Amino acid sequence: MSRITATFDKLREQDKTALIPFVTAGDPQPDVTVPLMHTLVENGADIIELGVPFSDPMADGPVIQRASERALVNHTSLHDVLDMVREFRRSNSHTPVVLMGYLNPIEIMGYAEFAQAAADAGVDGVLTVDIPPEEGSEMLAALRAQEIDPIYLLAPTSTAERIRRITASASGFVYYVSLKGVTGASNLDVEAVSRKLAEIRASTDMPVGVGFGIKDADTARAMGRVADAVVVGSALVSRVEEHAGDTPRILASVGELLSTMRQALDAP
Amino acid sequence: MRLTELPDAAGHFGPYGGVFVAETLMEPIDELRRAYEKYIQDPAFLAELDADLQHYVGRPSPIYHAERLSRELGGAQIYLKREDLNHTGAHKVNNTIGQALLARRMGKTRIIAETGAGQHGVASATVAARLGLECVVYMGEVDAARQEANVYRMRLLGAEVRTVSSGSKTLKDALNEAMRDWVANVDNTFYIIGTVAGPHPYPAMVRDFQAVIGREARAQIQQMTGRLPDALIACVGGGSNAIGLFHPFLEDEQVAMIGVEAAGDGLETGHHAAPLCAGKPGVLHGNRTYLMEDSDGQIVETHSISAGLDYPGVGPEHAWLKDTGRARYVAVTDDQALEAFHRLTRIEGIIPALESSHAIAQAIKMAPEMRRDQILLINLSGRGDKDMHTVASREGLKL
After folding, report:
1. Which of A117, B281, B333, B377 lies most in the core, judged by the most C-beta atoms within 10 Å?
2. Pick from B23, B180, B296: CB nearest A158
3. What ipTM score was computed for the predicted complex, to two decimals?
């Protein structure tokens, strides 16, 4: 059983919602990332989504786009990101790590070589924003061969047929994009999300995470009532940006926000 | 599959093309594909398009025999397909008319576009004004500065121009920003992509709207000279004017096809925009194609004197025409393009766009080595009025 599935099984027994923070690897400096990952775990992260910087992050809003730009000032590459995961694994063997990014850096490394290197580093899941299942059979085979969970996005625009197709390709969990827009947008509609989650659950028993638009304790709690996991990205990355250059303050500020979300999710 | 039958149902040209976008856009893109496949065969739609191309754009555009230039070069006869004479001054309008009519049939009330040199933005703002559609144009800050007049033209036409300050602040970043807008506003918004790149069906759809160039030129050159040309030459940024000219000639095996990329300061300097000549395959902006990228897969900044060629990717059909050998791709430097710009202006009284000047420069290289009874057909894709400031500032003048 994958580390991701085991994590969700355990949370389900405890009747808890998973909290999945996202940070961009190498932002604002390469040496911040591993300490930040540990801080996330200490403040309630069940799974970590680690963004792989890309020069043209089309599906991201300005906050995460700027995080990519900061990371690329130091040329943080996919190889560097895998090294960060390897270092994180030296003292954490239980928290699943999902890489989230775009296809081109993987394409240039080669699918099989990437999957092997990711598995060796201790990566548990890979979410590639711009490769739908229609184009993804080769990549999917490479990930499965290394027992890495392929994580896919579902969107408000996904038809019933697409939901079936995507959930058939995915494992670990699926990630529902709660709104039409890019990361960091703010027009969240819990009712609409709840209806769509029911539709998704009709096709799969896999846990469903919800992200895009979750920015504080209130939005986390509201989403936590309907989702198996909540993903928070831009709100945390904004704090990294705010304190760039002062690593202790980054860790304190990100940790503080995440722990208020954890408490909100766990409150009866 | 024959080249003329491509792309396949999933939008592939050999290993290139396809649909590489985030899930939110998959259904809207499929909706667009269905509408495009329906209307491209609908006689009423095609009649409306033809009428607009004739009465609004001014088609057919003529072919012109550049006799003085041909004589001076002492070789092949040079014929120019005069897309510079279209309404708005370039080939771009052929496509924006088609897509805007499609947008209206799909019930979309708002159009968005990205632009580099500003020609596609102007062509989009123009059709939006005519059809009464709201229009937002994304343009990189660097491009907006070097194409100030076009920014003003778009605003006069009622479009909102949003300058983009992320990344390299040029065409690719404008495209990223337009995609983000589209994701957030898919319900009422139609994204008019200006070139033969992007996710399927854009490369096929834009080609089909631009192929009017090659269909006309193929008939015109035969009427004027009694034969087909020996070679076609067109500049390639994303590649829409080139594909528009090439496509109707694909099965004429005796006709060579040469696409001209921007070599900028020279391919050896790395400061260029020539992915087919000096890049490698990858995935960007919804399709697999040749890209300018570093060894980590990050897209690198490009350079060309012409904003319209300043793009790190290229249409997937060109990638496949290169690999199959049906077309050949070369590159011309900023200096060579400028020299061609001046030469055509002084000898023929035609001021070409800096983009099109790259194609002229290639003709200037090739013609002297050919016989006088041979024919080069060049796509003069746009006029140079928009480039006055760029050319003047290269010469130390301020207008």
Report:
1. B377
2. B23
3. 0.95
Rg (CA), chain A: 17
Q: How far is CA B375 from the centre of its chain?
A: 23
Assess contact for B330 and B362: CB atoms under 8 A.
yes
Q: Provide residues of B within 8 Å CB-CB of chain A.
A: 10, 18-28, 166-167, 172-173, 176, 179-180, 183-187, 282-286, 291, 293, 295-300
Q: Which CATH architecture describes the domain A3-266?
A: Alpha-Beta Barrel (3.20)
E strand map for B120-224: 134-140, 160-164, 189-192
Residues B69 and B344: beta-carbon distance below 8 Å = yes
Q: Is there a contact between B318 and B207 (Cβ–Cβ < 8 Å)?
A: no
Domain boundary assignment for chain A: 3-266
CB B66 within 8 Å of CB B380 = no
Whole-angstrom distance, CA of residue A220 vs CA of residue A215:
7
The torsion of the CA quartet B237, B239, B244, B248, rounded to 10 degrees, works out to: 130
| C-alpha closest to that of B147 among B307, B303, B264 | B307
Q: Does residue B114 have an active-site annotation?
A: yes
Give this prediction's pTM: 0.96
The nearest alpha carbon in chain A to B28 belongs to A157
Evaluate the CA torsion angle B224, B353, B316, A180 in order and state its sign: negative
* Nearest residue to B284 via CA among B302, B269, B266, B270: B302
Question: Is B257 strand, coil or helix?
Answer: strand
Decide: helix, strand or coil at residue A52: coil
A78 near B CB under 8 A: yes
Residue A110 burial (CB count, 10 A):
12
Phi, psi of B26 (to 5 degrees): -60, -45
Q: pLDDT in tens for each of the 399 residues of chain B?
A: 799 999 999 999 999 999 999 999 999 999 999 999 999 999 999 999 999 999 999 999 999 999 999 999 999 999 999 999 999 999 999 999 999 999 999 999 999 999 988 989 999 999 999 999 999 999 999 889 878 889 999 999 999 999 999 888 888 889 999 999 998 898 999 999 999 999 999 999 999 999 999 999 999 999 999 999 999 999 999 999 999 999 999 999 999 999 999 999 999 999 999 999 999 999 999 999 999 999 999 999 999 999 889 999 999 999 999 999 999 999 999 999 999 999 999 999 999 999 999 999 999 999 999 999 999 999 999 999 989 989 999 989 988
